[in-house]
Fold each of these.
Amino acid sequence: MRIWISTAFILAAIAAGCSSTEQQRPADSGPAPAPKARAEAPAEGAKPQSGSEWEELLNKLKANYAVTEQQKSSQADEHYRLAERYFQAGDFEKSKLECQKALQLNASHAPSKALFTEVSFILGEGKATPQTVEYDKFMKEALVRHQQLLIEIDNAYERGKRDYNLGEYDQAEREFRKILEFSKWMPTGVELESRRKAALDMLEHTKEAKRQKNLDEEKARLRLIEEEKARDEYKRLIDQKRELEILFGQAQLFFEQEQYTRCAEVCERILYINPNLTSVAEMRNVAQLLQHMKMSRDSLKSYVEEWKRTFEQIELNAAVQADELEFPD
């Protein structure tokens, strides 16, 4: 491409020189016919290109060059992205090769230059200048901090597993979330990614175990409530049974004493508490029937006694009258 541009500039210079020569030719002292012969020679072949045609050709060459440069820049970007992936995966050799490919396509590609320099320092191939020494020191400190953070992540993971095994799921969840928070701000790599995945997996297990624990606690709480209700119901039934036994004893006593009205009342109280006691219902019915019979018998007895007294009075009156009456002989 550069050769094409230089050739175009040379042709433009030649055309400009020819035009200036033709303009200066009449002023020169010399035989005039020779230049005319040379000037007429191009008329027999192709016409010389004008300035606008040269400009159009140059514009086309510039456009082709621009398109080619854009394609190279795009390819350089793709190689840089691939180099960055290799760098994040920890494969620094392949990352360096991709940076070199990007710089071959575009020597001024700044991200590739920076990544190439960083990879070179990691591989120990950087030049020892004051700036590089300072950068190397910074990288060593960063690596030390990176290792310290990895150790802290491992400790947090072990604490989380211990809390998980002890059933302290809230504390375990905090530890695993701490690891995931670390992984957001640290440079990605194989070691960090493996720890992040392990922490994420344990976090899911912890959440599931926590949900199961909450369900079990809720079931246990409901079971205790049901057991408490059952105990209260059992106690109530025991007290009710004792009360029914006492009332039933009173009903029997009243029945034996022929106090049928009070016996029926006690039976009604028993049936109000438990209407399913058929024996008590039968006792109530019998007591009511006997009470009616007793009332009828008492009424009949008083009626008979009243009539007896009436009859006795009638007989007494008849005797008195008999004594007072005297029949003649």
Amino acid sequence: MSRFPLSTMGRLLILITCCLGAVLPCTTQAAEGDVTLLPDRYAAWWSLGETVSFKPILVEVPASMTVFTATVFDSSGKEVRRDKLARQPFLDEGWSWKPEQPGFYEVEFAGAATETESPTVLPSHFTVKLKDGKIGEFEHNRYQFVIAARQPKPDFARAQFGFSCGLSPKVLKLVKLIGFDFAFIQAIPWGAQFTNEKMAVEPKKGEFHWEHFDPIVEALRKDGFSMAAQFLSTPLWASPCPEKFDQINIGTREALMYAPKDMDDFSNFVREAVKRYKDRIKIWEIWNEPNIPGQSIFWYDTAENYTRLLKAGYKAVKEVQPEAEVWLGGLGPRTSYFEFYNQIQKLGASDSFDILSLHGTWNSPEYFYAIDDVYKAPHRPAIMSEWHAILHNISETGPHPSERELSKRMMLDQLYQFKRGVVRSIFFTLTNGNAEVETTDFFKKAHQFSQTYGIFRSKPRIEPRLAAVIYQFFLAQVGNRVTGYIDEYDLGSGAAGVLIDTAIGKQLVIWLEKPTTVKALFPKGLGSSAQLNDWEGRTISTAGETPLSPDHFYYLSGAQDALWPSLTKAEVLTSPRNNRANMAANLIAGVVNLGTVFDSAAGSDIRPKLVWNDANWNVQTFAPGAVKAPDFNSTFVIGSTEQGIDLVVDVTDAKHVQNETSPAFGKGDSIQFSFDCDGSGRTVGSTDFIAALTPGGPVLWKSAAAQVGGDLPAKWTPADAPVANGEFAIRRENGHTIYRIRLPWSELYPLIYKPERQLRFALVVNNNNGTGRESCREWAGGIEGQRNPAFYGVLRAPSR
């Protein structure tokens, strides 16, 4: 199908996926040439047995279009239906279809002058706006909709499956479609809602404004939800650092992310909030993602001050509401969070929270319980209070994962939570914000942070993503309650399964690596009582030759208990965070000095008695017949402090040539260096830099960033951008190029300072004498040629 030339169409609108009178606000405007039809169900969500219907609401369609086509695709992209409609019936009645199977579908509308002419897709565009005012326009021409097999019945008493909730009640219609039974309100903004201080509950000491918070609490109460609320952000008047108010990192004001000067002010605020809502809110979380300074945009203060804040908040809550449950601020599955937890436990935090609150994906309480054991602290029950089930951000390399890949990750991670004893899962979040799948590259090229995370799109309209129907059917299939993880199995033929106990009996959740059949997995048969469903809710025959596809997960229920002992037990559900590359043998070893290397990058001083890395260099030549240049040499010295890394590289090179631009700085005289930031030896865990002295001045470029997932590190630069934090200088001096670089740990996220820890590092010095990249000197492998952190060298502190 072709795309309709905008210049030949009148003004048409977008296919809206919300009922009139119930449309969520959206800044998207119709582009010239777009088309508007309206589904007769909110958010394009129907139940099996209902008729799907889209009707035009504005009909300025070119007179030349006389025939319209509606083509329906299933979740695998396979065409399942095509309808042709004459002009007037389409304009008057739109298109309708009564599906026989539940699941996720897309419909694409097109028009043509005649039945024999190739139809032209009716376009649907949306725009997003960057911080600098630049606007990007994108197409999303297929209209996503769901046919739900059956509706879950929320278990408000158990409240095991929840959603992250802002301050708008408008999302509750979407919540009801999925079947969540618990709401986590993020947050009660003591000082500001992210950067918006106008939302502060206590903008002046003793002056409380609850008008922004009351509506969502009351709406949740009316709908029967159990709920929790989070305390977050210190008002400017209470902050110890008011001068940092205008310092904004991604989405918070730095001045508001410190503990207050007077902890009594926080205690008073907590007491007022609990007094007001204690009849409706029984659970309170103390802050969001506290971490080592620089590692989270929500906390710039120390572990000592968070411990004080936690203790004060816990005491204030219990004074007013003794039966309340208090959560520790949510912690991610990163080294920095483990170290932060270690510090607060050492300070005696264990008696000031009832629940261990986890964030991210593939997180496990075991990381934190090991630290509890060191301090003889009790293991608190664990919840996933901010589950980044399908979150994707621009720090992640490669194309945006497919909807199926994200859904598979979501389901495996949910099962992993059951395995690790997580007692509540809270989905983050219902709808995407300013970013959609199509906008990833746009934000990346602009070096602006963005994420997609919702199970509903918000642009160009509210409509479900594949994960929405998959999670909705999961809740229906387990009766909104999983009472236990039982075991896991290798089913053969590239298939695996996890057995869980649910409110409606045992369920074997099955996934595949390749196509197979029911008989291949269960050669003895399943019996007459067994039922098989795919993850979109379709009933699958249990007959032996029924094909099973790796495109779906499957639920086996109603099987006889005699089946389970016949299956092969095996550990099939493992966290990808535990994956480690096979490190190369005989790694290059060098020295990292403890302490600074220089006072200032702009200066010329070098601290005395440092150990330089003169040895273990390898030279590669690239020009045909080239030999090692006698005047090309290099050495480096590196230092590690609590603040970050100092690096000085001294390159002997008589002729300096650097006329390249990003991302090709490496073709000219330059250095490239990289750290294995998560210690895994995998490319997703490394952060890479290029430094070059160009005609326009020195440049320090971050060419790759270790994946941060849903974490929001402060003072951090995404990949393919000039480094925004730290300091650097490059100068030519007597036939030498001297690179002086100071990086804060935040730019190496998730790497943190530990004096006893070895660093995994590699360095390449590039040489161009005017005829192209002639040669390079490399310290350790893994940069030149194929990028592979498994070959990085090891830097250790000098022996004392």
Amino acid sequence: MRFSPSLSPRAVAGAVAAALLLPITLRADAACAMGGSILFCEDFEALPPGITTSTATWTIQGASSMATIDSVHARGTQALHIAATGASKAFIYPTTFAPPMNSVFGRMWIFMDAFPTAPNFAHFTLVEASGAVGDGTLVRPIGGQFIPSVSTHALWGTGSDGGPTGDWLNWRATTPTADATWTCLEFQLDNPTSTINVWIDGVAKPELTVSKNFHNGTQVPFVFPTFDKIGMGFQEYQGGTTPAQFNLWVDDITLATTRVGCNGAAAGTPPAASPAASPAAAPTAAATKPATPSPVAAPTSAAAAPAPAATPAAAPPPAAAGAPNYVVTPTVSCWGTGPVSVLVNTQISVNGMQPAADANGGLASLQLTFNGATDLAVSQSWNAAAVSATSNVLSFQTQDDQPNVGGIFTSNSITCTGGKTQGLTFSLAGQLLSGGAINPTIAGPLAAQGATGPAPAPPAASPTAGGTAPAPATSSIVYCPAPAAATATSPTAAPASAPTTAPANTAGAPNYVAKVTVGSCWGTGNTINFVMNVQLSVNGEQPAADANGGLAALQLTVNGAQSLTASSTWNSGSPKASGNVFSFQTLDDQPNPGGIFSATGATCTNGQISPPLTFSLAGALLSGGAINPSVTA
């Protein structure tokens, strides 16, 4: 569905200015004078030093943390100091919060001694809004998470919990946190499209934008509640953190009906005991964006063939103003030798939406270059039209409402070690089917450096998302581990509908051996999606109608999955998924059955299923004879 809310000229102008990253005239607010567009403002200047719990306009909630007023400051003489440990919370809540039209802009300055770097995937929130009227959704415009495979620093992100879209966070490698330096954080909650926009140190971060139909949660509409509560402070959800204690200073909190801005650099001095600023952080200039960490390099191998020069990772063309921003996030797994089979799934967003025939210029013809391959061939593809491969370029057309394009490909020039390709990266080119230009970009760690496409040019102002085109969030799906004190909510174990150990061998029966490869996963909430491919051998040969007793009916149990369904299958007869069992018949000379599946009972984190699925095999020959089934790693 596409939405075209009615926006006032002032709202449209503000949205366009934000989208174009142009300087805008912002209100100077050195003092917290209420009135006009200001709904709430606190600079902590008039409060006595020491422990604080409430004033006439706000309260502190979160008894597990200590809040004090001290002399560490950003723009005045005092700030709110929150001292917290892991799995604790302290938020400042305005006593009344009812933003007009259920939309609001916010601004706060923060100084964090050190953001969490342990445990892995440590998750925290600095701003959370909620409402008694609605579906229970908690809206978190400012938060973050430590993603060890992406950065040595925690990453800023937008997210939600508690509602139909589930628990999700849209973090980005391009938005690292900065330790021991003042940072200006701004956000917008735009009710007509349930859009969250974020600025860091005065710079718009469209890659953090999420909206009603573009988010990382279960794919149902993300809808704001009727806001009546908003908290700003710090909450960390796991114990055993590094550091063991977090020291956060918050200053100049403002909520308004229009954007307030940072209004200059921080003037305060850091606390004497604070550690030195992280190398990745901008020193103290609040208007300077923190340095972006280097992309995670693909692993290399001495045995890997050098990348061919057939299609080098060339510098991208300049961004075309007004052209739709196509962002493709690939995930990859592989198996086999000579040739190697490579399973690639891509998540495609166009101006923050899925490809659509009736939006953003329509559908497109794309060329995905496999840098590191020379002889790409297509074995199987899904959710794409006109698919072909030449040299190291995969060409295809997007399809209406199909954001997950993928396939299984073969190549003799790709090296596969432990299920991972060695040195394979991607770059993107293309145009609209109408002939119009696009701004193509590869997101994620598999982007070819120097060939990931231009920084997306903002599209023409559109009311569908407040004029700001978000970058995709689907490659950043991370579930938050349950708080230490929370009751465990993990799903019940999958029913033991099939044995998990192979039965005793039957003398003389053919030996069926299955090697199961699970590709990267996607999806959120209670349901995940994944690609599963099976390599079958029968007495060391591929299945055949005229050998080893003929073809067979097999039952592959997916231990750890529940409610298994198959949206697409290949190289199998009479395929059926039920419970946690994939049943199928082997086909003549087809050793690689597989499919795209959905299931509950597990979670998908950074493209990996947790806990990992395991497998067991049972079955019989179609003639009724016995087999000796087994699964190998």
Amino acid sequence: MTTATRLVRRVQLTGGSTYIVSIPKEWAGMVGIEKGSQVVLQLEPDGSIRLRPSARRSQVQLEAEVRAGEGVSRGAVVREVLSKYLLGYKSIRVRMEKEDVELRKMLREVMVSKLIGAEVMHEDSRELVIQVLVNVEDIPVPDVIARMRDAAQGMMEDPIALLKNEREDVDLKEVAARDDIVDKLYFYGLRQLYSAVRGFAGLEDIGLSRLEEILPHAMVLKNLERISDHAAFIARTLSQMPREPPGREELAEAAEAVVAFFRWSVDAFLSRDRSAANRLLDVDAEKLREHDRELANKLLKGYDTSLLVNIRSILGSYRRIVEYSSDILEVVIDLTER
């Protein structure tokens, strides 16, 4: 089929009351449509119609190949594999011009820490085949977001329990390592969205109902991934500080308010609660920013330089969590625009 993506067809009238439009024969063959096949017509809010086969595209077509050789860095190969995963491919074959043990090690580490359902099905000195065993409909996108919310919330709550002396068994390095869970869910969520855009899955298969919901969900996924990064940074920074750092009670109190705001923000998105989003932006976000300024003025003085740097970094991460949560609330307002 040609590379043209815009085709013009003349509308025909048959039977005196039915309009018909032909579809390109090459495209029909490519996606497996033949006489008697059923197709889905998705009516979009802008008045357009999206047409796709009712059956999912053949898995045979969802194979990709990545070549590693001279002039291609290991990082570039890893990024290419990640890209193929995000684009919805079920099988990714990495071909190497020569044996590269370090590259195979890097790819295995990425699969473990970043990719849900990716397993090595074949490996030799010149080739590695990655098979994605999970289906996009196994965890709908709204459920992915809920799980990312819960994981990130847990990453923030455990250090608070440590600051308040409520728990002594909190391993801050383990808390930071949970960022891998959120990363996995993030890439899996993006894979679902790309699969819907490319026609590998229907919107209803991934828990959405309208094409225009794809971009807002991608934005929320990214904000959650960034929030998790900051939660991991906070845990790592606290692990470098005294067991009972100065101002720990005030810091714990401020952190609890940030965690609650974060949770409410994601819940407002999942429930499409426009009024809650406006209230959180107008009232709660402003209170948190004011409290942040007061806490910074109180804590960022009178201590040695290294401790001040750590406290400033932690406050900065909580500040960014509030901003990313506010971005999620802005998405709620945009998505529910009437």
